[in-house]
TrEMBL record, chains A, B:
UniProt xrefs under Pfam families: ABC_tran
Domain ABC transporter intervals: 3-228
PANTHER family for this protein: ABC TRANSPORTER, ATP-BINDING PROTEIN, SKFA PEPTIDE EXPORT ATP-BINDING PROTEIN SKFE
Name of the protein described by the UniProt record: ABC transporter ATP-binding protein
The keyword Ligase is assigned to this record: no
Source species: Pseudolactococcus plantarum
InterPro entries in UniProt: AAA+_ATPase (IPR003593), ABC_transporter-like_ATP-bd (IPR003439), P-loop_NTPase (IPR027417)
Keywords: ATP-binding, Nucleotide-binding
Amino acid sequence: MSLAIQHIEKSYRNQQVLTDIQIDFQPETLYGLLGRNGAGKSTLLNVINSRIFADKGSITLDGENLIENEALQNRVFLTSEDNLYPKSIKVNQVLKLTEAFYGGFDWVFANHLIKAFKLNPKLSFKKLSTGYRSILKLIIALCVPVDYIFLDEPILGLDASHRDLFYRALIETYSERPRTFVISTHLIEEVANLISEFIIIDGGRVIEQKSAEDIQQSGATVSGAKELVEDFIQGMNIIGMDRLGSLVSYYIKDYQQQEVPDGISISPLNLQAYFVKLTQREEEK
Amino acid sequence: MSLAIQHIEKSYRNQQVLTDIQIDFQPETLYGLLGRNGAGKSTLLNVINSRIFADKGSITLDGENLIENEALQNRVFLTSEDNLYPKSIKVNQVLKLTEAFYGGFDWVFANHLIKAFKLNPKLSFKKLSTGYRSILKLIIALCVPVDYIFLDEPILGLDASHRDLFYRALIETYSERPRTFVISTHLIEEVANLISEFIIIDGGRVIEQKSAEDIQQSGATVSGAKELVEDFIQGMNIIGMDRLGSLVSYYIKDYQQQEVPDGISISPLNLQAYFVKLTQREEEK
């Protein structure tokens, strides 16, 4: 039982965009799909959801070929791009069309979210701001009766309170009805506590697939007063740092367990620092 | 000498979107424009840039009426929305059109940024991903020969390294040729150190206009080990909190100077926490 992506390749003209992509999406799991701008995330999501055809490779759902099997494709969902909606369609019409297409819709949760986000269901899609277009799309994604749900940058343009509301809604619906969500995002730290598996793609290849726990255990965050911390971390493999008030945190890869002076605290590695380091280009160093 | 927005009102059908907006944009200043989703930010930016007409009020540039004065309007720039570009236009054509329209363009800096961001100038606009559309728009905004530049969510869809690259490019071009930038964004903490003046709008009104320094001085961040901090802040006006490793930071409004126990550090107030609290709705409390 899984959604298996096998040896997917895709190129446009002479440019290779996806190379030998292999991912086995397990049921009832929350995935984070991370990658730099231009890494191939959106192309991969479009291939998995039959909006673009791959040049090579296969995609199977529970062992059956997904491509050209409409019944199976209805068990997989990807948030729409803006230009896939008719121009004058209204918010509530979009929801009804979704229900008709997927044979069901969680109206109770949708209406709860419409109210919480203050989305006006009578507005036409084209009148929605960037933030509210994202809100409509994430409401649909959380309410379709589908086993594998892909969200491409669901918090694009969302303010801080609305981002928080989305994360809580995701946890709520997942707890009630576990299913697989794959979330592509650039705000890595914000989703760090939701996600159990991270897939990192760079230059069209999967360069890492690890549990959030394994990544966080592959190093450490060393925090405390600036002088104290900077003295302690000498010679360590520093991959990033942050300030919080007058305190600093340094992110250390391959941290060795050791005795720690008073005033310094050790905690799991920061995911964003790990990702930035892993995908850094030569000229950015 | 300023770009003065006076008593601007705007409504759509029966809904008031902007109410008595008064802002005096000073020359050579970096502004942050903050607001919840739906607060009216994009409408305001469109009104200032003559893409939408206000129902009431006036906009003057150095004392002269901006509306219907094309020569003056060329001194004010707003990043374009996607649907304003012809579908098949290529990246380098967009740049050349911008130069023709504004009578100049900083090609040296533009080419430097195109390389740094790895933007392919031969691609057509519609083939660009969300992130690369943002990158094209911010390159244009940083290179037009204009005195007042408005950027509507310039980092939409940008990865962490690219966001950092943008912030550094903004500082670089501003230092060389000071002019006014007005940046609307939802990633408040990331721009906190760049911006000198914040304008906060909510429900279509300017609810606050303050220097970054004044906001940060209107409270404090109290950081340290969890138990120690939570003991110390009892009875204070808590507006938010964050964790960093095993440390916590509480954001306190109207903090009173006082003696502080060892192990606790006091620093300026967190801007995002301040903003979230200021614009929180009754049902979100």
